[in-house]
């Protein structure tokens, strides 16, 4: 089962990005922060709203040094066709991974085997290739790029400030906590 601090498993797949086809492997992900954003299928209903939200917030992800990889069990050819025909998907500049065998979705434990599609799963991978954030929602529940950005900021802060933690509702620039005996029972 995939858990926090689980390592990114090896993969190699075809992808679509900025009008081109390319091959992406787990080696391409290491050394930087990245988000794997699984969704059930191209040409559906909730999925384009989520992917468009990510595209609309691309600059904020770029500012944090985070690369986005959307993933469905569709082929990279289908991603291109969707990109070329949907105004929402046409905004996407990030990499859309094809996962027609479900291997990557299986690696992250989000493949719905009987349907051949992925659950709505979001995974934040740190530069060492370890999972630092996991969110899985029901098929009818869309996710928010703004909320994801807040989680990324907190994860990056904690990674660069050992001994500090981010409390609930933490926003960049606000106070953190330094767990110690002095705090026990004071919060």
Automatic annotation (TrEMBL):
EC number(s) from the headed UniProt entry: 1.11.1.26
Enzyme class, first EC level, given as a word: oxidoreductase
Species, as recorded: Gluconobacter cerevisiae
Function: Thiol-specific peroxidase that catalyzes the reduction of hydrogen peroxide and organic hydroperoxides to water and alcohols, respectively. Plays a role in cell protection against oxidative stress by detoxifying peroxides.
UniProt similarity note: Belongs to the peroxiredoxin family. AhpC/Prx1 subfamily.
UniProt cross-references to PROSITE patterns, sorted A to Z: THIOREDOXIN_2
Description of how the protein assembles with itself and partners: Homodimer; disulfide-linked, upon oxidation. 5 homodimers assemble to form a ring-like decamer.
Gene from which this protein is expressed: ahpC
NCBIfam families documented for this protein: AhpC (TIGR03137)
Alphabetized Pfam families for the sequence: 1-cysPrx_C, AhpC-TSA
Protein name: Alkyl hydroperoxide reductase C
InterPro entries per the UniProt record, alphabetical: AhpC, AhpC/TSA, Peroxiredoxin, Peroxiredoxin_AhpC-typ, Peroxiredoxin_C, Thioredoxin-like_sf, Thioredoxin_domain
């Amino acid at each position: 089962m995939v858990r926090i601090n689980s390592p990114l498993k090896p993969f190699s797949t075809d992808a679509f990005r900025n009008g081109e086809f390319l091959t992406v492997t787990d080696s391409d992900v290491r050394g930087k922060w990245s988000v794997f954003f699984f969704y059930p299928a191209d040409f559906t209903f909730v999925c384009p709203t989520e992917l468009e939200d990510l595209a609309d917030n691309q600059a904020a992800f770029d500012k944090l040094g985070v690369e986005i990889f959307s993933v469905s069990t569709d082929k990279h050819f289908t991603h291109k066709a969707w990109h070329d025909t949907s105004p929402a998907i046409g905004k996407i500049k990030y990499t859309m991974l094809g996962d027609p065998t479900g291997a990557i979705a299986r690696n992250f434990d989000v493949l719905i085997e009987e349907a051949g599609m992925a659950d709505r799963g979001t995974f934040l991978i740190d530069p060492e290739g370890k999972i630092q954030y996991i969110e899985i929602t029901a098929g009818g529940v869309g996710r928010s790029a703004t909320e994801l950005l807040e989680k990324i900021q907190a994860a990056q802060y904690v990674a660069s400030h050992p001994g500090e933690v981010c409390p609930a509702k933490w926003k960049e620039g606000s106070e953190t906590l330094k767990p110690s005996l002095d705090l026990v029972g004071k919060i």
